[in-house]
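Is zinc ion placement plausible here? Inputs below.
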Amino acid sequence: MRNSLYKKNIISINDLRRNELELVLNKSAMLKKKPQPHLLKNKIIASCFFEASTRTRLSFETAIYRLGASIVGFSDGNNISLEKKGETLADTISVISSYVDAIIMRHPQEGSARLAAEFSNKTPIFNAGDGANQHPTQTLLDLFTIKETQNRLTHLNIAIVGDLKYGRTVHSLTQALAKFKNNKFYFISPDALKMPNYINNMLDKKEIYWKRYINIEEIISEIDILYMTRIQKERLDSTEYANAKSKFVLHTETLKNARSNLKILHPLPRIDEIDRDVDYTPYAWYFKQAANGIYARQAILSLVLIEKHL
Amino acid sequence: MEINKLQVEAIKSGSVIDHIPAHIGFKLLSLFRFTETEKRITIGLNLPSKKLGKKDIIKIENTFLSDDQINQLAIYAPHATVNYINEYNLVGKVFPTLPEKIDKILICPNSNCVSNNNLITSSFIFKKDQFSNMNLKCKYCEKEFSKNIVLSYQ
Ligand SMILES: [Zn+2]
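Reply from A.M.:
I modeled the complex. Tokens:
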């Protein structure tokens, strides 16, 4: 397969075509099966975290070290001289891009990764989260985990539970899964945290099945993937929150009619939306999902940085 | 010729933006930074118009607007006409059409959008929603807004 990801910026999951997503997933599977500790030997990658995000940073940095590349960078924008000296993001990126082979970037403002790509002089930018906007490698690891557990990315029934309004991971995941045939979406959320219209409209336009449900029990026997997300207390008033806790928290009893192939995913960190007892069921897959982040990130890094893959 | 009958002093050469809705003329002057040139500019505000009731008009001497500029007029003044004048004669007439994208002149309503915080230029693409309403999608934060929200956010 031709590697169309070579030298591409990875800013938004929407920029990737279906065959490119497949390329990343295949590469992730290969790297999981057979590690390649020297694949990115001699590459230097900047890890620029303008806001702290320990989990994502460690996942990226582990992926980089496991491919034999080196890292320069910073882990908290508030404590770096760039910010204190008032240098613009554009200037910072323009300078760093002349030092390294790629830039991983986390930034609190939406669109910052797209902006960075305009000033990086063709050094590829990997968006590790730009405000509430995009976090494409999270979606890649979600897709990889779904494919790994179900052996396909088509003909799936996917329930997405929790904060569907502000949860960028569920928006991106829905957009990505909508590129594959015959998937059905079951959205379960408090009224105040419904999936935004632009996502529903996109599904309608593509004639993809989606429906809102009130609680998880209703659909548990029909679904292959149960994607849980956290509801932040401050998003709801206290009655709504109490209500949400009863309907949108997952207990082992809720799982008694589950399909045997059901897998529960969660972008983590979880607070209390998944009961700890669920961890011991065969359906719990969120920690394995987080572990897959390393392979998905290795895959996208190597595809962007190396043109030819044997 | 109609041009010679206009209520605003005729120009020898340049562009006349006609049929601007009343009260929009002033906005266009600042948005399109027309006043930042050394060129002589004549404006007429609240002039009688058969088509619009009242209209504004802007004349800029020795300047011919680019196609991009003309098309960008379409979001504020969809019925505007741009007349090109040479030696007091009308030598061309252009009607703006809605562009595919619009750079620089709008501000993204998302206060956490990087385009509001880094003194860079904004960039929007036009998108029709399922009700055929015109929306504007910010290239940076990827958020989509109805046209009126973006236009009123100045
Ligand atoms: Zn924006």
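Short version: Chain A is about 35% helix and 15% strand.
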